[in-house]
Every structure is written in structure tokens, then in C-alpha cells.
Amino acid sequence: MLTVDIDNLSYIYADGTAALTAVSLQINTGESVALVGANGAGKSTLLHHLNGLLTPTAGHIHICDQPLNSKTLARIRRHIGMVFQNPDDQLFMTNVIEDVCFGPLNLGLTPQQALKVAREALDQVGVLSLQDRTPCRLSDGEKRRVAIAGVLATSPEILVLDEPTSGLDPWARRQLIDLLKNITHTRLIATHDFDLVHALCERTIVLSEGKIVADGPTALILTDDFLNSSPTTASNDC
After folding, report:
1. Alpha-carbon distance 21 to 232, whole Å?
2. Of the candidates 202, 237, 230, which has an alpha carbon nearest to the alpha carbon of residue 27?
3. Coil, strand or helix: which one is 19?
4. Is 164 left (phi over 0), alpha (psi -120 to 50) or beta?
5. Are the beta carbons of 207 and 41 closer than 8 angstroms?
6. Tens of pLDDT along 175-206?
7. Tens digits of per-residue pLDDT, 67-112?
8. Are residues 218 and 23 in contact, defined by beta-carbon separation less than 8 angstroms?
9. β-pairing, 186-190 with 158-162?
10. Cα separation of 46 and 17, whole Å?
């Protein structure tokens, strides 16, 4: 079953910059797919289309067999769980448990139900002990885990992560990769971290200047020849 189906997606920013050009890709249920590319390749732009943060200039997107449009957006956002590159963009309540309860409450769960699933999500990512802490006092690695818990608490079918290991120290990075190994959702991960790609993603898609230039098994895509010929190791994206 196709979980994500993107057909000839193009996006032009207001200043005339063509961020994506005729991008087509499909992701099957249960796949874990890496999205790699140089700065400005369009990775984050592509991710932001999947839950309606951006509207295509041209092309079509289907999520779980539903067309993505203004009428279906609320339903589709229940299928997609987005973890942003900066966890501070997701953590805004006075303590951790309130942050993780926010999504379930907005889906209509009772406070008691929301508290139960929030605690289960925090336990799943190994930070239940932080539930009463203020997010601004957490380490970067702890913030990432809480942000992931907040998404998992909404029970999405698809997990989309934008540079999940960016800025983490080696220990926190390794811990986060190990955590993500145990999350079995359909996953699309934009990253420059090739260790993460090899550990988590059996398939890799390469974007260059808003176009897909390679799509295949990670073991074939990320060869030494590819790494030596492609500028995909920068740390930021637009």
C-alpha cells in the first residue's frame, strides 16, 4: 500500500526561486526512507508539503490514499507526524507533560486519556522521568526525545523527521539513532547524517536543486563514488 504518493510536485517561492521541480516519489507502508541533498536542495521544502505547511505550485500529493487539499488537510494531519529540525519550534508549554498532551487533547481525547497516552509516549522514548521538567531546561537530546514523544502521542501512521541528529553531541546522537531503530512507523527522514541513513533507512532519495537525481537502495546510493561526487554533506537546508 502506498502511504505517500507525490506526483510532479513543483514549488516556487514568492521571490521566484524554484525550490522543487517536477518531484515524483512513492513511499510504501512500513518503509524507512532517507532524503539527502546539499544545502538548498529542497529537502525541508518537500517535507513541509506533506502536512500542508506549504501548498504546491503544481502537482499532487496523496497521503494514505487521500488527496492533500484544504478539505482533507485536517484528516491528513492525523496520519502525518512531523518532527521539526529545531525542537523549540514544537515545545512551548510550561512543562513536558503538557507539551506531549497538547496533540492528543486537540484530537479530542479527554484529559485523562491524553495524560495516559502522553506518559506512554514519553516512556517509549525513555524520558518519562522528565514529565514535570520545563522544556527550556532540557538538553538538546532530551528536547528531541520529547518532541518525538509529542508526535508519537498523536498515533500517526507516518513519521517525518527533519535533521533529527543535527547539533547533537556524539553520545546524544547515538542514543537518538538507537531510539529511532525501535520506532516502526513508515518514516521519511531528511538528514545529512549518513551513519543515521545506514542505520535506519533501507532506501535513499537524493535531491539536487529541487529535483530527484537518485532513488534506490541505500547500500547502492551511498557508495564512496557517490559521496565523492555529490555535495550532500552540508548541515543546513532551506
Report:
1. 18
2. 202
3. strand
4. alpha
5. yes
6. 999 999 999 899 999 999 999 999 999 999 99
7. 999 999 999 999 999 999 999 999 999 999 999 999 999 999 999 9
8. no
9. parallel
10. 14
* β-strands 80-83, 158-162 pairing: parallel
Task: Report pTM.
Answer: 0.90
Residue 66 neighbours by CB under 8 Å, 6+ apart: 72, 75, 76, 79
In this predicted structure, which of 22-26, 83-87, 125-129, 223-227 has the lowest mean pLDDT?
Answer: 223-227
CATH of domain 2-229: 3.40.50.300
Classify residue 209 as exposed, middle or buried by CB count within 10 Å of its CB (0-12, 13-18, 19+). Answer: middle
Which cell numbers hold the place of 205?
532519495
pLDDT band (50, 70, 90) for residue 227: low
CA angle 158, 164, 165 (to 5 degrees): 150
